[in-house]
Amino acid sequence: MKIGLYYKEKNKENALFLKEQLEKNGFTLDNVNPDVIFSIGGDGTFLQAVHAYINKLDSIKFIGINYGSLGFFCGYTKEDIPELIKELKGELFVKQYSLLKGEIKYQNSEQDIYALNEIRIENPFHTLISDVFIDDEKLETFRGNGLMVCSSLGSSAYNKSLGGSLIDSDLNVLELTEIAGLDNNIFHSLKSSLVVNGNKKISFKGDLSSIVVGYDNLSMQKEDNLLEVTISISDKKVNIVYSKNNSYIKKIRKSFVL
Ligand code: NAP
Ligand code: MN
Questions:
Q1: Given 4, 35, 41, 96, which is the most exposed site by the fewest CB atoms within 10 A?
Q2: What pLDDT does residue 69 have?
Q3: CA 127, 133, 138, 139 torsion: positive or negative?
Q4: Model pLDDT, residue 210
Q5: Whether residue 105 sits in one domain with residue 158
Q6: Which of 46, 70, 119 to mutate to test the pocket of ligand 1 (most atoms within 8 A of CB)?
Q7: Which residues, given as ranges, of the chain have pLDDT below 70?
Q8: CB crowding 48-65: b at 16 or more within 10 Å, else e
Q9: Per-residue DSSP letter, 139
């Protein structure tokens, strides 16, 4: 089994500690073609690790060791390392989650992006005006700062700050949540989050010039003829290793209630 380590500079010491433990136990380190990636940090680091290996996700299992604040993706802490190394030699408990796919359509071309948490369009300069479609049916013309679609796994991130619902991470659905929708006597939008079946597509169409397209920790600013952004559940899946007593409700309780 080949193991790769992914971390930000501030966690270098912690990464070196893990590296020593792994080498002592006979594991080979390989960041190019790893079977397992250890993400050493918080959720931000974990998201970056997934994007760094976005074209090799099928063959990699991700293990998050939490040195961040929340560590929603991270099933382990430093104290778990000895036990985890034993588990590495046996069978790992893996959960598979689908990534979101964003198809960005321009006048003459198309671009695909992927995300674990969410894909969002935001206009930091002017009111964003966008039609919202669920499959081919129009839901509304939205006016406001932006629109976001998250996965169930991403529902506890930006979506939660926007007032969206938490979704059991085992559900294969999409959640649409507004970012500061206008609400007055003339313009209205849905206002609540909308959860739809994961076999549907959510599209934003309209004058999408000078918007920022954000996806997880990444973003790009679009100046030119962007016509449409369509978000769906992709074929790409990420394999995340958890300890056997992992539970979504426990995680929510620990992160947001206690
Ligand atoms: P970051 O500062 O690492 O992430 C922001 C916060 O979100 C951190 O506390 C992070 O936990 C937490 N987080 C990330 N994914 C989560 C998940 N699935 N469930 C619960 N909490 C989660 O920032 P970043 O590196 O740019 O990461 C990008 C993510 O930040 C985006 O995908 C977006 O969801 C989130 N974000 C949130 C807001 C907001 O809430 N207003 C605004 C922008 C972006 P750790 O402390 O463990 O890293
Ligand atoms: Mn972070």
A1: 96
A2: 83
A3: negative
A4: 84
A5: yes
A6: 70
A7: none
A8: bbbbebeeebeebbbbbb
A9: E
43 is catalytic: yes
pLDDT at residue 103, rounded to an integer: 98
Cα-only R_g, the chain: 20
**Are 230 and 109 within one domain?**
yes
pLDDT score recorded for residue 81: 94
Amino acid 171: pLDDT: 97
Which tokens go with 63?
Answer: 């293990």
Residues 228 and 110 in one domain: yes
Output phi, psi for 56, to 5 deg: -125, 20
Which ligand is the nearest neighbour of the Cα of 218? Answer: 1
**Burial bucket for residue 14 (CB in 10 Å: 0-12, 13-18, 19+):** middle
pLDDT of the residue at 97: 97
pLDDT number for residue 246: 87
Answer yes or no: do 152 and 230 share one domain: yes
Domain that holds residue 250: 2-93+242-257
| pLDDT at residue 107 in the model | 85
C-beta of residue 191 within 8 angstroms of C-beta of residue 178: yes
- Cα 221 vs. chain centroid, distance in angstroms? 19
Q: Which ligand is nearest to the CA of 70?
A: 1
Of the candidates 133, 129, 117, the residue with the CA atom closest to the CA atom of residue 196? 133
Active-site annotation holder among 30, 35, 43, 58? 43
